[in-house]
Structure formats: structure tokens, C-alpha cells
Design brief:
Chain lengths: 248, 248, 248, 248
């Protein structure tokens, strides 16, 4: 999402107060941090992966970035390492990153900090940020993050809210993590899912919202089309359209 | 994979010594543990999610299971909790589960323990197993698993092996976790990817193996079709065919 | 396209003079004629096909129409049969239908007649219109349409134009028919393709525009992204966006 | 199908008497005729379309053929033109081609002639064969084929058979043509559909077999999974598996 230019829309939605909890991949947050630290993503519809490799570019379909961005993230963590030591879970750890970024910085991490929107990242170790943390830990600087504690917090949020509405973009661990918190609290009242994955292979990413009713991830009385809908479209096309239609 | 009946093929491949490291989702391991504890997955091409909900069945496309399986997992962890206390990372934690299962049990967790194949699960908290661990922790029984330590171990394995060959089934966090370990060690020499995801939306799951060359996840001199190949097919169809063609 | 509500956009593009030749399926023209004759398409995201069958509704994913529309088309052809007798090819036959519709009628068939935009329908017999023609012919009222003559006309158009630009929406026979006319004349200079089909299965519908270069369907010096582009998206989403961005 | 190597399986199924009527694209028959006349299809997973163009190769994803094959087809029609003059419909025309091929020739056209299996090709003009016919007609050698007459014949076959079972491979005009003949006769009792197209875009190719119940293309009492099934898979993978499982 971030490499494909969706950052500003996410920020816009957060500023408008429409997101209470954000669950995302480590990759999205890594690319957000990369831009927050002054680096960029580029676009090209032609590529040669060997040439990119030799020149130090990393490709994500038709987007790429300089491999040296990792140095910037490493430097950021090296400099601020002590501040992260007492992070209890990923929500706390990510909040601390947001706090360290300059005020007004156009990043998801910063805007969530400013707007007090908790970010959960259940697969945090599986990302550039995770790699940099690992880089510190091998030099003896341990960071204890209890990933099970995230589950506790998000279930509490789901339990205590009057109604729950979910927006799933693209599936994966974030979708499943949200669904688990709903299954073990009280189910979503509303839902929007944007994905190009199919239901037939049986994976969580392509599973229809309707399927969630059997699990209790979606309320049994939620009505298709009225309360929830599956959108079969690339999210970089569908999300701007959806946001444009509701923002005013 | 496990709910769709792929467990025995995975076990077969492990028994044949063809898998040195397994990285998988918490969901796969949860469903494997469910069957290891005597519960079952069922198949039906017709369903009504409200009826399934009322009767206590959880649906995964055309497969379903009884919701009460969670009780079995909970009981398992409750009974054996003390044995897990000193788990350092997910690999260690999962090995302990395998050790506790009866000898010869037809499960991935058990066979990996017997064959000394390490299992990594970077998104462990995002699963039924994760939920049961969380269930114990809220009653004060903390379990400290360092997810960043997994990264250290798998990078060491990738560094010290003579050659690396990868098989990605379906993408997600496991694919990205393996790719990271290769990017920060020495790249894969060979690769097979089985997925129905498309490259255009730009996500990691649908990314071609060729793209990995730019990152160093795949060796720059690896040749398409000769050294690596992207297979566009449901893995429950392609994996048995591939295995059948090489097993003898 | 027409059942999904794309008719007015197509009409808008034709009125703006942006389409010189239209090649389409018999289904699109049948649904266009159905609306031209006063019948409607309806939308619903819930359905029961047996109930629809009993009530006389025909479903196209989340769109449906009354089965009795066929009576209207039949009546139209019965009444005007003599006027179609001397149709030489599908272009001529379809022009005659457009001529018979009232002036200003909001239909593709009528607007093409008014704007002198030729319509070719190589698979005409495979449609509701084709069925009604067949219905007349079995009562001895033969209609001779030379489908090979269409090929002659469209190749002439492709040859005599200064430059050729193509827009393929969804593949099938219309795409292939246009590509043949370019292969046997002088290739397209520009191209846009909107489809959700994949290239891997090898069919014409999912084939990339780039592939056309080998055949001469696309000019060898046409540049990807600059001169031609493959858009992976449902056309009912992509086409309105594309048109909105160029119409002003 | 033919360029991808499926010809022999189709022939095998026809020889086993399992196909009573074949409806296919002009492309499939053209590639079948190309091989019948001694030319070949080649395979490569690497390509450069400009180089292929310069060297005279036409690419179909990872399959290609020499452009000069068109000369062979042209020659075939030039030599035998008079024999085709009295073809009434595509079934008759294609039967005549089969008759002209040498006995025992490994082609779909020949085996259908030998086994008296009618072939219908509603989009015949949209193919290499169509192009060659067009090439003759521009030199004044007209060929009158009544495409509406095909509809009459296939509806008669559907009406007079005791039960109808359909196998749709990949959608397009052939699928729709078969479905029309069922809609206007008595519906299919059994069905198998193999396609990678999705239902959501609303096209005929991706439409589920169940949808056909509303139209009367499938019998209202046909049961999903028991009487009909949608297979989401590349047909070059699924068809050999299906045939292997039933042939003995």
C-alpha cells in the first residue's frame, strides 16, 4: 500500500477520525518509516531485475526503492535504541516510533501517534523493521516484545466498543488477526473487504466476509450488501474511490 | 493446506528428507494440532453460514470443523503449560509441542520433531495456538517468545548451507520471512512458487520469483524455468502433482 | 457491459467521436436492444437461481432481467423482417437495426447509426439476436449474412486509417477479431486493454498487448506504458475512471 | 488448447466415444489444422516479442509457431476450394476439412470426421481459417456459410437427446453457444466447467454453472457437486487429471 502511493489516503482517513484501530503488515510500516526518514519510492513499468540488483534497487512489481534505505532505518534504531527497551507489545513499540518522528511528518506512524490510534503488527519480525531490531539484538541489545499481549489489547478494544466495523485490505495476517479478535469477543456489525484473492483455494485472504458468520467473526444477523460487502478489485483502485465517495 | 487435506503430502515430503526448514502460518499448525489431538476437518460444497454458526461449525471455503476443537487445544496447553515456559523462540516452542505428541502421530508438528526439521512461525500470535497462549497469559501465566530470535536462527541456517532452494506455497508472511532470511544471507539458488495471486496488485504473495533477484532474495545468475519457476495453480492441485513426479 | 450499466458511458464516448469502429459480442447488442425496446436490467446481490427460474428471471452474476424480453425482440424482428433481407454482413445488419430504432433512443445500436460508426459482431449467431433470427429462419424466412465479408471491411478500415489505436475490454471474439484485422493490415500504434484474465492459461483474452508485437497486431516500435498498457481491473470500474480522466 | 498440447487428450476422449458434439473456437481448429498439415508449435518460457516478430514467430504466452504456417493453410484451401462451395453451415464446412485430411491423421478435425462427431464453430470468421476463407472470397470465390443454421442443428441435437451433459473449457463463444442451445431446448442434466475466470466481472466465461439454472441452461433440479461442478484451474492441468481419473 505505502510503496504504491496509498499513504496519503490512509493518513487522510485517520485524520478524519474514521479509523479507531489499525492492524497492518511490518512491510507497510517499514515503507512508511522509509518515507518518514526522507527516502522515496519510484515507479517504472519496465525493469530488468539483474540491472536493478547491480545498481542497488529493490523492486515491488512496478515500484522500486534504493537498497540503501535499510541503512537509514538501522541508523534510526541505533540512535534511539534505549527508548524502545521497555516496549511491552507491538502497539507500544510502534507508538514509540511515531513519537520519535517530527511533528507533522507525513507518515502513518506519526499520524497514528498524534491521533492516538493504536497500531498492531502481529508479524512485526517479518519486515525491514524486524530485521533492524534483529540486527541490534545480535549485538546483545535485546528487545522484549510480547506478541501475545497484542491479542489481549485488541480483544479488549473489540469487547468494549458499542459496534465494530472492519475494513480488510488485501488479507494476510492483519485480516486474520482482526478476525480472531472478533471471533473471541463479539463479531463485526459491518464490513468491507477489498481483495483480488479468490475464495476457492481456501486461504484466509480470499475468504468471503460471509464465511466469517460461521466463526462468529461477523454477526449472524449482518446482511450481505447492506451491512457487509466483498469488493473484488486492486485496493489501489478501490480504496481511493470508496474514500472519495464518503469523505464529503 | 492442512484443512484441505495436504497434511499427508507434507509429511511424506518431510519423511523423504526433502525439507530442511519449514516456515508456515499459525493457522496451518493449529489445524495440524487439531487433527493430532483427534479432531477432524469435514468437506461440503454446500453451506449456510448462519446454520453452521448455530450448530457450532467454522467454515474455511468448502471445509469445516467443529468450534469445540478450541477446547481441545486449550486443554492441551493447560495440561502442559510448564513445559513451554522456557521457549526462547517459535522454533523452540513448536519443537516442544511436537515432542509432547505421541510417537508416530500423523502430524507435521510431530514428524518435524522426529526428523529434527525446524519449524518457524513468525505470525504465531495470529492463530488458534496464539489465542490459547493468550488465554493462559491473561491468567498470569506468561510465556516469553522472542520472535526476533527466529530471524537470527533462520539467517544462520541460510548462511551456513551450501545451496538454498525454496518452495513457496501461497505467499503471505511465511514467504516474506524466508525471502528476508535470503536477502540478508546469500540468496536462493533454486525456487518453485505455487500461487494463484497476481503480481499486478504489488503484494509480496503475488510477486514473481524473478523480482527477488533485484533484492538478492534469488541469486542474480539463477535462470528462469531452469533454476526457478512460478506455478499459477491452486496448491492443492499442483503440490501433489509435483511431488508425484519427483518422489520416485 | 450493457447489463452492468456501462451503456451510457459507451454512448458518451461515441458521441464524443472517440470510437471509429465498434466490435462487440452479440450479447452486448442483445441487451442494448432489450433496453432500446423498453425493457430493463435489475440489480441484486442476493439470489436463488431456482426461484429466479420459476419466476422467469435470467441472472448474469448480480444483474437480472425478465425472461419475457425475448418476446419483445422476437416481435421486433417479426415486424421488420423484410427490411433485413438484403443484409450483406453483420455491419450492415446491425446498422439496419439502429436505423429502425427511434431517433434519440439511448442505445448503442442507435447512436452508432446516427454517428455512422460501424459495428461488427463476428459471433452474431451466438446471442439472443442470433436466436431470434434463427427463429425466423426455421419458418422459412432465410437471412443471408456473410460473416467473412465483415473481415474484408474491417481490414480495409485498418489499412486506410493513418494510425490505429485499440481499446480491448474483456477479450473474447471481439478482441481476436480486431487483432486479426491488424495482423493482416498494419498493426496498432496505441492500445489499452482492460481485463481480469491472466496471461498464463494462454488464451487470447488474457494475452498481453506486448504479445501482439510478435504477430504484428501491435507495431514493433510501440512502447509499453507510453503507447500501450494492460489494465488489470474489472472494466465496469476501470472504464468510467479512464473516460472521466480524458473527457474534459 | 491445441497449441498448449491438449490435442491428443481431446482425440483420446473422442476415440473413447465420450464426446457427442464439439463446439470450439476458430483458433483451436486453425491450430489443429496447422499441425495436421505438418507444422508445429514450440515452447519457451523466455521471449522477446520484437525478436520473435523479426524472425517470423507468433507467440501465444509460452508457446509459439512460425508465421509461415498461414501459407500452408492458404495453399490447402486454394487447392480444395471447389469442395467447400456447397457448405451450408460451419458443421458441414468443418466436416469437409476433416474428410480431406489423410486417414489416421492425428487431428481433431479428422478424428471427428471419422467418428461422426459434429463440430460447430460459431465464431469461424474470427480465426486463421476464417482469414484464409476471406482471402479466397476477395478474389471473387464466395463461400456461403449460414451461421444461423448451426443454431438450428445444435438445438435439434439437444432436443432429441435423452440427457445432456456439458463440459465447458475456458468459456467464450463456445460456452455461450452451447448454453443457448440448452436454454432453447431442455437444459443440461450434468455439467463440468473448467475456467480461471471469475464470476464477479459478470461475463459469460466466468459465470457459474449454477447461474444457468435461472436461464434454463441447467436443469432446475441439478445438484451442485453431485450433478455439476465449477473447477477453478488452468484447463491444461485439470483436463488431463479428470480424463486420467475416468478413462479406465
Amino acid at each position: 500500500m505505502v510503496p504504491a502511493g496509498m499513504k496519503e489516503i490512509i493518513i487522510d482517513i485517520i485524520k478524519a477520525g474514521k479509523i479507531s484501530v489499525l492492524v497492518t503488515t511490518g512491510a507497510n510500516l517499514t515503507h512508511d518509516l522509509i518515507e518518514a526518514l526522507g527516502e522515496s519510492h519510484y515507479h517504472s513499468d519496465s525493469w530488468n531485475d539483474k540491472v536493478f540488483h547491480d545498481k542497488g534497487f529493490d523492486r515491488m512489481y512496478n515500484v522500486f526503492m534504493k537498497n540503501q534505505v535499510y541503512g537509514k532505518i538501522e541508523e534510526f534504531f541505533e540512535k534511539n535504541w534505549e527508548k524502545f527497551r521497555n516496549s511491552g507489545n507491538t502497539r507500544d513499540f510502534l507508538e514509540k516510533i511515531g513519537e520519535l518522528l517530527p511533528e507533522g511528518n507525513k507518515s502513518i506512524l506519526r499520524i497514528c501517534y498524534e491521533k492516538k490510534v493504536p497500531i498492531f503488527c502481529p508479524g512485526i519480525s517479518d519486515s525491514g523493521i524486524g530485521l533492524m531490531v534483529w540486527g541490534r539484538t545480535i549485538s546483545g541489545k535485546k528487545l522484549e516484545i510480547d506478541v501475545f499481549d497484542d491479542m489481549k489489547e485488541i480483544i479488549n478494544i473489540a469487547w468494549s466498543s458499542k459496534k465494530n466495523g472492519v475494513i480488510y485490505i488485501g488479507g494476510g495476517v492483519p485480516k486474520n488477526f482482526i478476525q480472531q479478535s472478533l471471533q473471541f469477543s463479539k463479531g463485526a456489525n459491518y464490513g468491507i473487504q477489498i481483495t483480488t484473492d479468490r475464495p476457492e483455494p481456501g486461504g484466509s485472504s480470499g475468504a468471503s466476509l460471509e464465511e466469517g458468520i460461521s466463526w462468529g467473526k461477523m454477526k449472524p444477523d449482518a446482511k450481505k450488501e447492506e451491512d457487509y460487502i466483498d469488493v473484488f478489485c486492486d485496493a489501489t483502485i478501490a480504496l481511493p474511490l470508496l474514500w472519495a465517495s464518503v469523505k464529503n
